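Before drawing any conclusions, I looked closely at one protein's amino acid sequence and its backbone structure tokens, quoted below without any editing.
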Amino acid sequence: MKNELSKQETIDALASLSVSALSNLFPYRLYDSKKAVFINQKSVMKIAEMPFLSGANEKLIKDLVTIINKTINDEIFVRIFRVTHRNIQKRLSAIENANSQLGGIYAGISKKQMDFLKYAAVNGFENDAGLNTTILDSRIFIELSMQCKTQKKDTFNDVIKTINNTFEKISIELNIANIPMSVLDAETFLSIFRNFLQFDHKNLDLDFRYDASQYLNTELTKLGIETHVEEDSIIFTNTQNNDIHQATTYTLSKLPKSYALYNTADFLAHIDKNSSITCPHIFSIAFKISPEEKSKEKAKSKYFSLEKQANSVMVRFFPKLKDQFQEWSYIRDQLERSEIRMSEVYTSITLFSEKQNHAKYRSQFESTMQACPYGGFEVTRPTKIQLPLFMSNFPGVIAQGLWTDLKNASLVRQRSTWNLVNILPLLGDWKGSYNGFVAPGMRNQLAAIDIFSNEVPTDNNNVAIAAGSGAGKSVLTQTMIFQVLASNGIVFIIDKGDSYKKLCQLLNGVYVDGKNLKLNPFTYLHQIKDQDAIQLYFSMIRDLLATIVSPNGDLDSVSRAHLLQASFSAYEKYQKSTNIDSVVEALTHLDEKQKEQTGINDRRLYDLITLLNEYTTTGINGQYFNEASTIDPNAKLVVLELGSIDANEDLVRSVLFSLINTISQRMYLSDRSQKKMCIIDEAWALLTGENKLASKFIEKGFRTSRKHGGSFVTITQGVTDYFKDECALACWNNSDIKIILRQNDGALKKFNDDYPNIFSAYEIYVLSQFKPAKEAGFSSFMLKAGALTTFHRLFLDPHSRILFSTYPQEFQMVFDLITHQKIDLWRAIDMTARHFYKNEIQKIEGYFNNDL
């Protein structure tokens, strides 16, 4: 089409486009694997995938503006586009396989979890909060394309060279900014865009098939799709099964004056509102840099024109003239200093869905845009030209000649590169670990969490959890436990209140009542061969003994030295038979030796002997610390219940520290690749106190776990509890991962008033929106790991609800089936789930049966 067409003539011409076959709409022809470019009908393009950014700041914005200014010339079309789809089968299958290796209950639960999530990807999660919740995956890409109508070899090669050179420059600069790119090949390209052009909303898999002998456009689509262009959308009918799908394309007609890159994650889904799009969609920003000299001349002309008007009487009638003059004055100055370039920008969003639900998804999108917290965004749904707009949202098409038509239709806006960068869809929710337990982000992004994985950006695997009453702490914690056990890991739980007794019974764990604990701190020392590790554990034993003799205060350095020397001497003499009796014997020998050499009685030695006598075999608490550890070295799940001895706080605190010492030794002795978790739940309160030695002991235990693939997890009701004293603060400071669930009414505000620098204002705001788990139908939590902050929802399938249930009648039915009817655990859980959640299970299973 010619440039001289008017806007209306252009729209009429675009509206006259017809469809002979869907594949004919797209220009894709060949892929050159050596040069990694796509050869289209009249253009050449290169596409690469980028990771989502979890945040942005002004430095990053400036860096991106500089990259665009310096690397992209005015002949290249650039598109940054985000595709959001339901094709999560591959990742869910990987998670299921990883969690099913042990078979039995682990394989059964993992299968039901994944079926539940697949169902939710298409139908959404049922919840009591009235939220648009589902599970989707989003990916972000950059496209470089150039028009190339000629078949002349030299010209053709020059275009490819220009694209590849530009891509290389961009890639180098983005790598410096820690944003790597991976080039798309033909298989990946086809797998992504088949999602949107084969119109099967129930298909969750990716199709990577590629036949190099066929044109790419014919491989993207499939036979039997009839296309009907309506005034404000396009209808696609599959003539083989009569499935009808619909696509609607919107364009962005207005931007707010003030908007920043770090806000863009909330553009299509607001984390704190019921505003999000739950159908597949493509959000695209295409741009072309304007010639530099031409931009400068235009800016000067605009500046001088507005200067006259702003200083004339016209300003009385048009007060915004002054604002426009100041804006163009700024643009002119920035252009002269080469700090910005001007660009032509086209923004579009295409929604794809089954026809019967399309009106709902359009309503979702339009209400999402209206609810945008940054205001000023306006979108339009152009009529009569939906087909070319639909085409324009796919790579390579605008370089075929469509750009001029979009400009003539007034759909292309002029923006500075600074304004352009600040609307690019580069931010998104964290996708988590490749494996783990699935907890979708609050913008519906599929995310899995494995605190041991390298994808969690931390220096240690320790976790501090704060969960108010009714927040869903039990469900979250048991989900974490199950995932560690499913991966053949080891879990120790130190509790006070029998919270985990049911789970322990169901998973054949070892349950140890506090009255029966045997915790000789020397039990495993003979198995440790590394000299540095031996010294570390002796220092921990010294600190343990110090907290036993002085539970409420610090011990002086000489007394601590005596304890260390006595521990060494006792172990040297008795080796694996060493116990508290041996240490007291060594202290007595040390006391006698000092008397003999100096003739002076050391009161400190006398006090240590007196205080430790309480814990010798004949002492009142001797049963706990002298016999070899009763913690089964082969057990995968061990629950240590301290409730039966909690009347004696000093004893329980000593037992708790001894457990940390014993468990950290077990972590050291096990395979480093094996996950090891120690959860301190209700018993965490026993760590409290101003005893500096105790806080150092915690620090050593927590720090040691990192080196051996271990994790200590502490759980409190309120975040404030971690800041009450030195011991609790040591738990917080030595846990790189923080998981915060809903806090009780008023507690969060008070905490923020008392400690204003722990959480950002945004984090506090989102946390304040969390609902009780029973009220919402899911648990909400914030995860902070290093510099990462991300928000999640945890939904449970019916079978997991039974396994982790806190309802007595559900647990009792499972227990009765196992004990009285001798039914295995998995069948008992399945029967109980079908009894209590019959309709939901039938709905999920019916969906998959109908899909076969």
